[in-house]
Amino acid sequence: MEFRELKVAGAWEITPKQFGDERGVFLEWFKEPTFTDAVGHPLDLRQANCSVSAAGVLRGIHFADVPPGQAKYVTCPSGAVLDVVVDVRVGSPTFGEWDSVLLDDVDRRAIYLSEGLGHAFLSLEDHSTVMYLCSTGYAPEREHGINPLDPAIGIEWPNVSRSGGPLEFVLSEKDRDAPTLAEAGASRLLPTYDDVKEYLDGLGNRA
């Protein structure tokens, strides 16, 4: 299992070792000691989610108040999605920047996003299944969104599916009506870089 930190600090791409034979494939998609060595603290698992999306479904950008925030460890066991992390931490050196990882059933990579980061993904084929481990449970009163098509962020979403056909973006009403990054900042919805760092330092001290 190999961890590679993305250009948004606090997010990692995880590439597992796959062992295949005529029967199929085996891999470890999460391993706590390896995770802790790479990230600096254990993942306090509180909830596990699964979503299945048609091609073109675009979910996000979602983030949560810090503390406690919501860290996510995400993989795609079936289908393919472009998974995106957005730095929404006010005061961060990479505020407003984004990075992405292709999650699919070929390379079987995962992505980890620590507390305070924004998360979104686009389904690249029908029935794409996304599984994610979360450090906190669902709490709608402290969870927020930013429009994933905000031109100021400028995420380069693919317009073709994995099979090569055109993609038409499908968003929930909530995501479509979500504020831009600037509007969320003006409304004081965004976490601050200092608050996130203080919280993560506390997690590291408990490792």
Strand count, sense and barrel status of the largest sheet are: 6 strands, antiparallel
Mean pLDDT: 96
Q: Quickly name the level 1 CATH class.
A: Mainly Beta
Oligomer: single chain
Low-pLDDT stretches are none
Full CATH superfamily name: Jelly Rolls
Rounded radius of gyration (Å):
17 Å
Order of helices and strands: EEEEHEEEEEEEEEHHH
Per CATH, the architecture is Sandwich
Beta-strand content bin: 35-45%
* Tally of contiguous helical segments: 4
The class by helix and strand makeup works out as: alpha+beta
Per the CATH scheme, the topology name is: Jelly Rolls
Strand order of the largest sheet: 1-2-10-7-12-5
Helix content: 10-25%
How many structural domains are formed by the residues? 1
What does this structure look like?
The protein has about 210 residues and is of the alpha+beta class. The protein is about 15% helix and about 35% strand. Strand 3 (about 20) and strand 4 form a beta hairpin. The chain has one domain (about 1-205): Sandwich (Jelly Rolls). It is built from four helices and 13 strands.
SSE arrangement:
Layout: E1 2-5, E2 11-15, E3 18-21, E4 24-27, H1 32-39, E5 47-53, E6 58-64, E7 72-78, E8 80-87, E9 98-104, E10 110-113, E11 117-123, E12 128-134, E13 143-145, H2 173-176, H3 181-186, H4 193-205
Antiparallel strand pairs: 1-2, 2-10, 3-4, 5-12, 6-11, 6-13, 7-10, 7-12, 8-9, 8-11
In short:
This protein has 207 residues and is α+β, with helices and mostly antiparallel strands. It is 15% helix and 36% strand. It has a single domain (2-205), classed as Sandwich (Jelly Rolls), CATH 2.60.120.10.
